């Protein structure tokens, strides 16, 4: 098998990955890369091929085409050399139901020569309060935290986290995010799949947006936010009562700013987005118009697009 | 899989497998339903068959307890290696446990080794409990048959564990639960485990000796009653182990 050129620091390299189930291409020529000491998010809607991709990286599935290298090794052929250096958190947890929480963590820890301190890890992730509870009785968030603990207990160099925050309460999520940031600062390559925009925005150094089995956009969060928006100018968003006359706001902007190219949209009932040559005076014009209409906006924000905007622009708004 | 040297960062293979075996053993012995099938059922059957004559048995020149105990031990082997293991593995497969453990240094090979050792450990507990009850009921096994009997139990364990993995790796967990229990009942009634194949009605009399259950039952009766292990039993168990093992190796799906 030809080896692929891995740039320095690249912990995971995927090139042209293909995986077919029952004649359907679930992953169709996917490329991505994850580096040491960075959090790489694989972002995409359900069924985009995220889980299949990371399972190929974990050695749990064999690619039908393309190449995968983790720490320079083949995840399937070199599995025995990789297992001690790769931590995995599966989407469905992978925890046996009849076992007590901390017993499971201790069990997995014994598979490693120099595991993390189980007690310390349990404290970090708040596992001690349910240490003696069987997995069957844990809440979704508790299971996720336990699964994360088992993924990192062996001091891996690469960690794959498949939807790590699914079913977590906000406190759990922040505990998880803190741990992920700590792993990054220790030089670990963290690869996480998610469909949560805030998770990708807050955590990820690099985001690969995946849809229909391919990466459709890659970059840092700021790169993704400016790319494809057509304008570097920030948007103005306001939340007010639904049904405001967007045409008159647009006319007001054109009149007071003496320029065109304004676009005002009620993106959802009561949520308005103003795009164009926005700036301080445009914001003043908007609030001036609101005052004229006698409308008190619940919230006015200016700023960049969110990753959600980028994501929806790229993957479409229809449900699937 | 390398059994001798551990890759960087991994615990030694021996420790990984021993830990997994202990983990599997605890999981079975702590599970109420599993204990019911693996320990309570054989003991009840032993006491019932020895103390009552609800089931007509031609024990030849042997006492009833001497005749029944080898069959109950054969049954015990099937409950652990097949029924309990197939159900546990099927649910572990559905819950992703097999996949998760396969990504740890334990690996797939270590997971399998741990499972087999776990089965053998539970069987040791069964032999102690069932053997103890049988001895209390007056069981007098032929001492020279103990070693061959142990060998047959290993062979039977191999065949039935292979069947368990074949089932667990191909069917849905709920399907395995139903099939495993059904097969156990069929094997107890007509598989030649407790009731010798020759005493079964009709075609079963000829068929059962070629089933792994009949071969194990006949083999253990031959060993522990002192009449000798029928070579057919060994051949049949080896054959089933090869076929079922190849099937499980080829068809087992981890997802």
From TrEMBL, chain A:
It comes from the Bacteria. The keyword Signal does not apply. The keyword Phosphoprotein does not apply. It is a peripheral membrane protein. It comes from Isoptericola chiayiensis. Its main location: membrane. GO terms for molecular function: ATP binding. This is ABC transporter ATP-binding protein. InterPro entries: AAA+_ATPase (IPR003593), ABC_transporter-like_ATP-bd (IPR003439), ABC_transporter-like_CS (IPR017871), ABC_transporter_ATP-binding (IPR050763), P-loop_NTPase (IPR027417). PANTHER family: ABC TRANSPORTER ATP-BINDING PROTEIN. Keywords: Antibiotic resistance, ATP-binding, Nucleotide-binding, Transport. It is found in: Cell membrane. Residues 12-237 form the ABC transporter domain.
